[in-house]
Amino acid sequence: MSMMFPINCCVMGGDDVDDEHQQPVWPPTSPPLTTTHGRLTLVRGYLKRKSTRNLEDGGPPRWALRWLEVDPPEEDRPEYMLSVYKTAQKSKRLNAVSLKKISSVRHDDSLPCAFVVSVGESNYTLLARDAADADTWVQSLNDARDVLNEAPGAQCVAS
Questions:
Q1: CA-to-CA distance for 120 and 105, rounded, in angstroms?
Q2: Is the predicted pLDDT of residue 2 greater than 90, yes or no?
Q3: Which of 80, 94, 128, 141 is geometrically suited to a Cys-Cys bond with 134, CB 3.0 to 4.6 A?
Q4: What does CATH list as the number for 33-147?
């Protein structure tokens, strides 16, 4: 029975791991981290990502704990990307999508603390630690998307 409810005590640190060998904990001990990069607020932190594989087989949904981060442009990728990593050490990128390709980010009314990132016809359900964390992710991703998708010259200039 104790395997169903792991004890997560004594974990400190901004990335919710004690050291590089310990697995991240759920729920995270701290809210998502944010930093300003130009006009954008970049967000990063642990979320649970819903897998659709079991749903196709009629099984219950499975959730995987993942580190998500809005990465700024770099030499090898000229756009802001929402990247998915296995852990905060970012040793292996599992997936990434340009923020410009995200069609919507909205709260999932059917599941508390969850939100949905839509990319074209695909929807990705993510679970935050609490409602405030979900709000941070939804607001940050939508704001960044809006800034990046602004048409040149669409900004109002005070005269």
A1: 12
A2: no
A3: 128
A4: 2.30.29.30
How, if at all, do strands 40-51 and 81-85 pair?
unpaired
Q: Note whether 48 and 42 are within 8 A (CB).
A: no
Task: Write down the residue that tokens 């409810």 correspond to.
Answer: 5
pLDDT of residue 159 exceeding 70, the answer is no
* Residue 119 and residue 102 in contact, taking contact as beta carbons nearer than 8 Å: yes
CA distances to 12, 67, 135, 152, 158 from 108, in Å: 30, 20, 11, 32, 38
The pLDDT of residue 54 is above 50: yes
Tokens of 148: 């990046």
pLDDT of residue 22: 63
Can you list the positions of beta strands (E) in 2-156? Answer: 33-37, 40-51, 62-71, 81-85, 93-98, 104-107, 114-119, 122-127
Residue-wise DSSP of 74-85: BTTB-S-EEEEE
pTM of the model: 0.78
Give the span between the Cα atoms of 55 and 52, in whole angstroms. Answer: 5
**Cα-trace Rg, the chain:** 17
Domain spans in the chain, listed from the N-terminal domain onward:
33-147
Residue 134 pLDDT:
98
